[in-house]
Amino acid sequence: MKYGIVLFPSKRIQDFANSYRKRYDSHYALIPPHLTLKEPFEADDQQIQEMVKELRKIAAETDVIPLTVTKFSSFYPASNVIYLKVEPNEPLQHLYERLHSGIFAAEPEYVFVPHITIGRDLPSAEYADVYGQLRMQNVHFVETVDRFHLLYQLENGSWTVYETFHLGGKEQE
């Protein structure tokens, strides 16, 4: 089965992202707005049980994560993906690194750029028009995320939560 690990931002940020995703993101119906921590990977039932134990440990040892969303950005020219930029920070980077070491060790396909995708699979002319308009907008959200999620993919391509892991940072005590 295919799994992935993500952070879901608050409803406020999800609503903002979805106001664009419903028009510009071909994956709109498959998964809510999210920040990918670990790209999709295959695991069998035994492997996933071991991973869940390790994810619980990682969550208990990880502080809550500040999320600051600052602007629209793009991966152009590598791809016509438009996203909400999430400012990198040490707790987020630390969690990402933990999810790519030990039993999760795998060389990531891309450099970690924290983001929430709002547009993909756009023809070049539409991409240029949409991105040209969006990049002029002011965007500013600040919040704290206290959990991450292990998702699995259903046969129809959509993703659903397998388990949620609460971060055990000092602010939860």
From TrEMBL:
* One Pfam short name: 2_5_RNA_ligase2
Q: Which residues form the active site?
A: 34 (proton donor), 115 (proton acceptor)
- Is the keyword Transferase assigned to this protein? no
Superkingdom of the source?
A: Bacteria
Give the residue interval(s) assigned to the motif HXTX 1: 34-37
Q: Does the keyword Hydrolase apply?
A: yes
Keywords of the record: Hydrolase
Q: Where does motif HXTX 2 map?
A: 115-118
Question: What EC designation does it have?
Answer: 3.1.-.-
MF terms (GO), sorted A to Z: hydrolase activity, acting on ester bonds
The UniProt entry, under SUPFAM superfamilies, shows: LigT-like (SSF55144)
Q: Which HAMAP family match?
A: 2H_phosphoesterase_YjcG (MF_01444)
Q: Which family does it belong to?
A: Belongs to the 2H phosphoesterase superfamily. YjcG family.
Could you identify this protein by its name? Putative phosphoesterase BCV53_07565
Organism, by scientific name, is Parageobacillus thermoglucosidasius
